[in-house]
Amino acid sequence: MREFLLGLRLLFGAGRGSRVRFLLMAAGGSLGVCCLALVLTIPQILDAHDGRVAARQPQSASARPAGATLVLQRTDPYGSQAFTRVFVARGIRQGDAVPPGLERLPGPGEVFLSPRAHDLLRDRPAVKGLLPGREEGLIGAAGLAHPDELFAYVGTERGEIADEGRALKGWGYSYAPFPAVEPSTLTYLRFALGSLVLLPLGIFLSVCARLSAASRNRRLASLRLLGLSIRGTQRVNAAETVVAALLGALLGLGEYVVLNQVMTRTGLPSLRWYPDDGALSASTVAVCLIGCPLLAWFVGRMSAREAAARPLAVRRSAAPARPARWGGLLLVTGLGIVAGYCATGFTDHPADSIGLNAVVMPAGILLTGLGLVLTLPLLSYALARRVARRTGSLTLSLAMRRNEVEPGSTMRVVTGLVLLVFSASLAQGVLIQLEQVTRPSAPVRDYALALSALTDEQRLELAELPGVRGHAVTAESWMDPESDTAQPWASAVVATCGQLARMVKESTGCVDGKVMRLSDPDAGTGQGARPGDPLRFRMREGGKDTTLTLRVPRETIAYDTHDPSGVQGADLLVPPSALPDGARLDGARYVLTSGSDHAEVRRVLDGIAGVVPTAEVEPIGVNVEGLRQIAVLETLLAVGMVMGLVIGTAAFVVSATDRAMERRAQVTAVTLIGARARTLRAVQCVQVVVPLSIGLVLALVAGKLAESAYLITGGGETRWDLAGVPVLALAAAGVVAVSVAGTLPLVGRRVDPELIRRD
User: Fold this and answer.
1) Mind listing the pLDDT tens digit for each residue in 183-242?
2) What is the spatial distance between Cα 501 and Cα 567, in angstroms, rounded to a whole number?
3) With contact defined as beta carbons under 8 Å apart, do 339 and 371 qualify?
4) Which of 17, 113, 184, 297 is most deeply packed, by most CB within 10 A?
5) How far apart are alpha carbons 70 and 89 in whole angstroms?
């Protein structure tokens, strides 16, 4: 306890520099703890979503006793969102269970809405068709997955849902039918956030705990020479690092509380939550308040080991020992693992992510990142020593000699930026893997709507929506149900040759204005429809029901459709001119096509909802729930990348500021013997840029190997992301430019000779 109190007295009584260093350590630690708390809380937010969804699931039975309450749940796409409606027909028995978020079950003609559905109904009155009845109130937060969910309880009569309704037994299941993130993809998310945030975060907190290491080591060496024991010296150092880490942890938790309140009000794209979902849990608080000071104590103990063991060498600035080589062993081990997985990509049986590989491959990537950081001081020392012996440049000689004497000091400045590039390369792989897992098999996506629900103006609006590439009408021929003879049957596409070409992969032999037979080798033909057979199509013309008879022609169009497709298996191409003006085929569907990119699919679905809010849309081959999960994952990965960028930038700013304070005496001494400010700025720039360039080259190579290993074990088609190399190269160039700008303030304009007399 005595040594701990001595450390606190030295901290607050050693001048303004010590207090500024302490504040830097605390501020940097608070930022790191805030990011750590956010990462640890994300699974809690997702679990809260799933828990509320599970709690409101109706427990029902197919057997319907007399007087039982009936329920019917419908989930339909409204744009790129899912709109869930639960129809409830109350029975004659009392005491039915009430779902979370409601005080009572809705009666016939009553509707309870989520706040988002309430706003939608106010802004788009046409949605009223989906919600028959009068609005009686809002659903509470306990009954909604998130604040932006479209959800409604609709009261109705028993006769309305008698055919499909099920008897209500209660509410709540132990699992959610559609979790916020599937367990399989949650593994990708955890690995990505661990690589993007936790690894740079650990390095950043270590950097904060070792600020002004040279000054502190000289002070600790003085205490050791005055008779303080080795353990006592380490306790004195721990007083500053642990107190700073503890203060930073408390500040970081406070920052997270404020951030949680702000983010629950503003939200993230595709991800919203309630304040209680993101509230700090006991485990998160324990990890931050115990783990971060413990890490600071360990780092402080390691940094004070030299001053406690060799105090005279520290006081007299003896030549430093060569940096340890065990960091290089970690790098070689990690690169060996990822290179081995990359080598399997050239074989017929590439490695997968099953069994032991699911542990070894991520471990290899983490070892590569950690080894990259720990190897940089050794490489910087070796290069600086070699260059300083051979160069004739004063600037280069001064810079390399300083890096030779303190290789770890410079690396603390550039470590965060190097890890940023490494993590960015790995993030590209995660995004590519996620895209491969969720990417549609076809390059286009189709959307089908009932033609009878659309006006001519709405059809034109839908065809001109951003992202829509083509449109057509599909219909099936009519068969007389009272006829005893076999009747030919076929499906038709009403479109021009140009419209057909935009809906399919390839078509040949099409002639505009003619009814032609379609031949798709991958699809079957109609029921006995042969050239010359009549096909009858029911349609409505001028308010009357009529029949259009077409004969199957001999002229054939060979076409190949995407899979899935809204025109797949069609047998007949009917030009629009073959139909009477204003006529509409019975049972016809209006089919739109767009690209398969997730963002484009969401844009088209939202556009359809804006034109025809109440129309039922069949997104052919599109899983709206899958689109939502992809959007959530992309949002979380974007958050991870932003946090990685913040951590890397913060590490550079904190380290550069500390380095400027640490080097003031040395800069002053060199200035007094005649060095110009321009020369000193060049020296400071070279000191940072040279080791940074080494680190960035290693980060690019190691990052691409790690990314390729990740893609190969993922089993996707893309294994070598060569398209991402220019992006990372530009990012590395930007990092170098930022580091050069950051070194300029290290040489001050005012020269204070008193600095070289201070200890």
Assistant:
1) 766 666 676 676 667 767 777 777 666 665 666 666 767 767 777 777 777 667 777 777
2) 11
3) no
4) 113
5) 5
